[in-house]
Amino acid sequence: xxxxxxxxxxxxxxxxxxxxxxxxxxxxxxxxxxxxxxxxxxxxxxxxxxxxxxxxxxxxxxxxxxxxxxxxxxxxxxxxxxxxxxxxxxxxxxxxxxxxxxxxxxxxxxxxxxxxxxxxxxxxxxxxxxxxxxxxxxxxxxxxxxxxxxxxxxxxxxxxxxxxxxxxxxxxxxxxxxxxxxxxxxxxxxxxxxxx
Length: 196
Fold this sequence. Notes:
The structure is a single chain. With 196 residues, the protein is of the alpha+beta class. The chain has helices spanning 2-18, 71-86, 107-117, 128-137, 180-195, and strands spanning 28-29, 40-43, 48-50, 58-64, 93-99, 122-125, 142-146, 153-157, 161-164, 170-174. The strands form two sheets. Strands 1-10-9-4-5-6-2-3 form an eight-stranded mixed beta sheet. It has a two-stranded antiparallel sheet with strand order 7-8. Helix 2 (71-86) packs across helix 5. The protein is globular.
């Protein structure tokens, strides 16, 4: 009987080791779902940028705008802190901020805005049609909301940030309340998978 118990214990351990259990993420695991794809926009210097250029790194993709009163600066601040927590591993991460307000977020202003959070962050822009096409790839909604005064408006938009793995696949999305530790842990997990 003792031998059978030992054999069963060994078999259970072997099955657990071979189960290929998926990693646990703090964000929402969207591995295998139809999120993402190639995007073609311009950086603040006017150079064309494609998401595929960042393969080999974990890319963090966020859609927002400079006049956003709360969620956008809070998310960018959390990402800045996550980069600090990552230390040397941050060299293998690229944060990309796509404006959903190209009318006001000129390339020069967008450059100052993203760099005020972290000099490594990249701002992306384009025509409204190009930005809409990129947003559609990631199921991002945005729309102008007219203010009380003429010419004054805000932009309602989805607030999730996407983590794209080193192979260019959308793997995780974080809601607007993600903490720096949430981002850092999931980025480390994706970087660890790339090494494995």
